[in-house]
Amino acid sequence: MGNRDFSSRDDMIFDIVVKSYIETAEPVGSRTISRSYGVGLSPASIRNVMADLEDQGLLSQPHTSAGRVPTDKGYRYWVDSLMQPEELTPEEKGWVNRRLQEAKTIEGLAEKVSKIISQITENAAIFYIRNLKRVSFLSYLLDDLIEAQRLGEFLEEEPELYIEGALRIFQQPEFQDLGKMRSLLQAFDEEGDFLRIFVKDLQEEGVHVHIGSENAMERLDGVSLVVKDCYLGELPIGGVAVVGPTRMKYPKVMSAVDYVADMLTEVVRRF
Questions:
Q1: pLDDT average, residue stretch 243-269
Q2: H-helix or E-strand containing 194?
Q3: Three-state SS for 212?
Q4: Secondary-structure class of domain 9-82 per CATH
Q5: Which of 4, 30, 26, 28 is nearest to 251 (CA)?
Q6: What is the mean pLDDT of the chain?
Q7: Which of 68, 75, 181, 228 has an alpha carbon within 20 to 30 A of 43's alpha carbon?
């Protein structure tokens, strides 16, 4: 638990449930919390707290007499209010920078970015970018093009998607169900569900987190996306995204997407 200060006993118990479920994919029971986390509460007291959290819609009980798991609403509350980011290590940042510098073309950069993100986050990664009519931009013309608002003439509106590591999702216990697997495979294949989310996110800066039912598309039920845009000058031209189960490791995933997208914005000026 570290030295984290929580605003309430409920938050402390909820934080334990989320972290434990993310790590184990197993529903979390009151006896496990009482025995393993040193919270100074009896199993009965913990059960009462968990029942309150369930009433608030933050936890659910998948089976009678089983432990609890976070709901989509619960993950949203945790990400927005309780989660502490897990920054990339200096070694990881150095590795990312070296790999990005190896790219010689936009296409090569796309492949490297998706592989980098997938490897760091242990989830599927998507790099999406508007098709470039010209692979290379003369850097000394870039500012003039932006100032004259002519940069759009060099870009096509239809984005390309580069997907890496989809198999990592299907190794997760949530996607052993053939129906869920089929739906997600269809989403990867048709790409439209993802593109609608990505294009909407281009309208706002920063890291965007889409959790499960927030995606409003049945095929992405049980799936979370973490997305951040990259830019050419002032123009958003695409971005990077991680796709995984709602039980993904948000602290590491959000930091990785944030860092790689920012580095990508710097590197893409070379092309």
A1: 93
A2: helix 192-201
A3: helix
A4: mainly alpha
A5: 4
A6: 84
A7: 75
Residue 140 phi, psi (nearest 5): -75, -15
Does domain 90-270 fall under CATH 3.30.420.40? My reply is no
pLDDT at 105 (0 to 100): 79
DSSP 18: H
What is the chain's percent helix, strand, coil content, to nearest 5?
55, 20, 25
pLDDT surpasses 60 at 5: no
**CA atoms within 13 Å, Cβ hemisphere of 199:** 12
Give the tokens for residue 174.
């949530």
Q: The pTM is what?
A: 0.85
For 171, the token pair is 């190794």
The C-alpha atoms of residue 190 and residue 9 are separated, in whole angstroms, by 45
Q: What is the DSSP code (8-state) at residue 8?
A: S
Query: What residues does each domain of the chain span?
Result: 9-82, 90-270
pLDDT digits (tens, 9 = 90+) for 10-42: 999 999 999 999 999 999 999 889 888 888 888
Q: What is the DSSP string of 131-189?
A: EESSS---HHHHHHHHHTT-GGGGEEEEEEEEEE-HHHHHTSGGG-SHHHHHHHHHHHH
Only one residue has tokens 């995204």, namely 241
Residues in the chain: 271
SS3 for 77-118 is HHHHHHCCCCCCCHHHHHHHHHHHHCCCCHHHHHHHHHHHHH
| CA-wise closest residue to 268 among 226, 225, 235 | 235
| Structure confidence at residue 195 as a pLDDT band (50, 70, 90) | confident
